[in-house]
Design goal:
The chain has 26 helices and 22 strands. With about 800 residues, it is of the alpha/beta class. Helix 2 crosses helix 3 and helix 15 packs across helix 16. The protein binds adenosine-5'-triphosphate and magnesium ion. Keywords: ATP-binding, DNA-binding, Helicase, Hydrolase, Isomerase, Nucleotide-binding.
């Protein structure tokens, strides 16, 4: 008699099933894109829990983004009723933060230590270099920042770095000073989160042994992009009784430039004596035209571990290739195509907006696309770029909030001591900094020594912060933020600012972000709250609630004298942590059916029905910084492999003859990657009446459906573009729109505004306009109705 297959294992192929039900030993899954690696990892957690092999507290899973972590928790709770609270699922940084919060004393940190993002870190370094008169021409702050981050990634403290030459000696000195400054202020940067957790585990036997006993199963997704320190951290956590499951794809390693080591895979196999290496070769994501393109492209790389990938899904549609005359025309075409696809949603081929993704190599490309989408009224959502929490006005508000939590945070102090302006000049601030240094105190504490008008102004600022702190005691997070926005003078300041409307909107969004943080996330710890017993086990009668490992310490048990699992962290401190660690992408438009815009890097692990890869040009993709050396080019190719394999059903590749980037018009050749794709899988499309160099007139809405494209055999202009000299830009005639910068114009929706910038010509012409009530917008002049006033 054959036992019925457990439901969890249904819908898995034999190799996947083998991976999910592996014995408790270390294992590596090495497999190509879309082969179900992440699905296997998630299902394995569920399977282990269901079979009572581990309790939620014994699981640690590392994902690449917070979004992926949330997704994993949602999937898990859909598979079985489990309390995800006890599980450690998150990014490396998120998990290290959680660990350090629980052991802040042992880690020599204040309980509510704050996290410096890359921007804060840079300004902290700049400040320090100025203070110690370090020549910033010889030692650019950015370079020093990379140096420090690099040292930390290699696990090196200043006294451990070898001073090979004078220059390195100086950098080590700055690193040392920077460390002291951070310690004094009670702040940590991203690298420090990792390094300090690692050191605590390494140096504290009871702590290490506790966690080694606790985490029976450690699972890591996207293992190919781990760096040296992350790998060392995992080695500390894995004890004699733990099993590590590493999952990855060497062809998708795209963070070498930030210290990721594909070599960690081979090291893992050797050092953990891995007996189980599993390959998954069936791709479930894409049709074969898409998959063949990816396979053929990546076959041009020489450094590969070697894997196969096939699909049963049939060829599907060809990969469509489009050549545009300008970046603007490229965006117009794309938006048109998208609108058609969205209109056909529900029929074949049609897609929901959120199933359409636009990928680009660098963030600077997004603006022209955003403009086109905005003008067409297509809802969209941009991932990455300037993160919500990195916007200047948000950082100002957060600085006030951070000072409430920690008055010693000098970075925040300096950010807002004179913002909004309150008559505190650079001179006074320098004096204050000198005084603080002499006293070995924080800026906040040194204010009392200042006299005169400067002293009075500074005193008033400090008093304002101290009063706010008093006033907000016991208030809800929402109330605190509203009070701070109001009393700091930020709102008032932006109200008076000509371009302040957007900023005020963002500040209001901050209140919403806090609100949803509290209600949905329960301070970011509980994605899904289920009834649990006192040990944090689910109360439902699932197999997971029986047969739990009796040797396992309960999830919430105190570990060390100062251990506290973060429960006592104030909502404000928890929110500030969240702001530093989360991208904040999911504010505002979360849940809306919107087209997704992102860089290829941030698309890793995701999938969409329909994908547009734009800007397929030499210098852009492959990127000019990586084209010159072999290693760089191979990484670009892996990046392209990642991009292609995001698509399930439909894939578009586009390039443009000209592109405005960083204020310059560039004439790019089309990407060499086109020549590395299988011709049989491609279909070259191009607007009917538009040939190479035939002018820039592609009117978006004037051409009927199905009549838009002609098919040319072979590659459209393939050789021509490669060898032709740059096309002559459109002749300089008086612009037809008749606008000049500085002119006042009227727009039906936005009202009156001032023209700031004009770019492009003919149908490509666009204007940047400041509308006092709606902020600065880019508008396409062929679409937008503007009348001079
Ligand atoms: P990437 O390398 O891009 O991260 P991956 O290997 O992690 O990809 P998944 O995202 O886990 O792949 O899976 C790709 C898609 O295939 C998902 O939609 C997943 O649900 C689906 N899938 C995986 N395995 C199966 C299966 N056995 N049957 C049907 N669908 C599957
Ligand atoms: Mg995956």
């Amino acid at each position: 008699e054959v036992a019925a297959e457990p439901p969890l294992l249904q819908n898995l192929n034999p190799e996947q099933r083998a991976a999910v039900t592996l014995p408790n030993e270390h294992a590596l899954i090495l497999a190509g894109a879309g082969s179900g690696k992440t699905r296997v990892l998630t299902t394995r957690i569920a399977w282990l829990l269901q079979n009572g092999q581990v309790s939620p507290g014994g699981v640690m899973a590392v994902t690449f983004t917070n979004k992926a972590a949330k997704e994993m928790m949602t999937r898990l709770t859909a598979m079985l009723p489990v309390n995800v609270r006890g599980m450690w699922i998150g990014t490396f940084h998120g998990l290290c933060n959680r660990f350090l919060r629980a052991h802040y004393k042992l880690a020599n940190l204040p309980q509510s230590f704050q996290i410096l993002d890359t921007q804060d870190q840079l300004s902290a370094i700049k400040r320090l270099m100025k203070q110690f008169n370090v020549d910033d021409e010889r030692f650019p702050a950015k370079q020093t920042q990379w140096f420090i981050a690099g040292c930390k990634e290699d696990g090196l403290r200043p006294n451990m770095v070898e001073a090979r030459d004078e220059e390195t000696r100086k950098k080590i000195e700055i690193y040392q000073l920077y460390e002291e400054q951070c310690q004094r202020e009670g702040v940590v940067d991203f690298g420090e989160l990792m390094l300090r957790s690692f050191e605590l585990l390494r140096d504290n036997d009871p702590i290490r042994e506790h966690y080694q006993r606790r985490f029976r199963h450690i699972l890591i997704d996207e293992f190919q992009d781990t760096n040296k320190l992350q790998y060392a951290w995992i080695k500390q956590l894995a004890g004699p009784g733990s099993s590590v499951l590493a999952v990855g794809d060497d062809d998708q390693s795209i963070y070498a430039f930030r210290g990721a080591r594909v070599g960690n895979m081979a090291d893992f196999v050797r050092e953990f004596n891995v007996q189980h290496q599993i390959k998954l070769e069936q791709n479930y994501r894409s049709y074969s035209n898409i998959l063949d393109s990816a396979n053929e492209l990546i076959s041009h790389n020489s450094k590969r571990l070697g894997k196969n990938l096939r699909t049963d899904q049939g060829p599907g549609e060809p990969v469509r290739v489009y050549e545009a005359t300008s970046d603007f025309a490229e965006a117009q075409w794309m938006v048109d195509e998208m609108r058609q696809l969205v209109r056909d949603h529900g029929t074949e081929p049609g897609f929901a907006r959120k199933e359409i993704a636009v990928l680009y190599r660098s963030n600077a490309q997004s603006r022209v696309i955003e403009t086109a989408l905005f003008n067409a009224g297509v809802p969209y959502r941009v991932y990455g770029g300037l993160r919500f929490f990195e916007r200047a006005e948000i950082k100002h508000a957060l600085a006030y909030l951070r000072l409430l939590e920690n008055p010693r945070d000098d970075t925040s102090f300096l950010r807002v001591v004179n913002f909004p302006p309150r008559g505190i000049g650079a001179r006074s601030i320098e004096q204050l900094q000198d005084a603080a240094r002499a006293m070995g105190a924080s800026l906040h504490d040194a204010v009392s020594t200042m006299s005169g008008k400067a002293g009075a102004n500074l005193g008033a600022f400090v008093a304002k912060i101290d009063v706010l702190r008093e006033q907000t005691q016991g208030q809800t997070l929402r109330e605190i933020i509203e009070l701070v926005l109001d009393h700091s003078g930020l709102i008032e300041h932006y109200k008076a600012d000509r371009e302040g409307a957007d900023r005020i909107e963002n500040l209001e969004e901050l209140v919403n972000a806090a609100e949803s943080f509290v209600t949905q996330e329960g301070f970011g710890r509980d994605a899904v709250a289920l009834p649990v017993d006192e040990l944090g086990r689910p109360l439902t009668q699932s197999p997971a609630s029986q047969g739990l490992d009796p040797n396992l310490p309960p999830a919430g048990e105190p570990l060390a004298p100062d251990a506290d699992t973060g429960e006592t962290l104030s909502p404000l401190a928890a929110f500030l942590t969240h702001a530093a660690l989360e991208s904040g992408d999911n504010q505002a438009q979360a849940g809306q059916d919107a087209v997704q815009l992102m860089t290829v890097h941030s698309a890793k692990g995701l999938e969409f029905d329909c994908v547009f890869i734009t800007g397929m040009e030499e210098g852009l993709f492959p990127h000019e910084n990586s084209m010159s050396d072999y290693e760089g080019l191979e990484e670009e190719r892996r990046l392209m492999y990642v991009a292609i394999t995001r698509a399930r059903k439909r894939l578009y590749l586009s390039h443009s003859q000209t592109r405005l980037l960083h204020g310059q018009t560039r004439y790019n050749l089309k990407s060499r990657f086109f020549e590395e794709l299988p011709e049989a899988a491609l279909k070259w499309i191009t607007p009917k009446h538009q040939g190479f160099g035939s002018g820039f007139g592609f009117a978006p809405n004037s051409v009927a459906k199905n009549d838009r494209y002609t098919r040319t055999s072979g590659g459209f202009n393939q050789d021509l573009t490669r060898f032709a000299s740059p096309p002559v830009p459109a002749q300089k005639t008086a612009p037809a729109h008749g606008l000049r910068s500085g002119m006042q114009v009227f727009h039906n929706k936005f009202g009156e505004g001032t023209v700031l910038t004009l770019e492009g010509s003919g149908d490509d012409a666009r204007a940047q306009i400041n509308f006092p009530r709606h902020g600065v917008k880019w508008l396409a002049l062929s679409v937008a109705k503007l009348t001079p006033v």
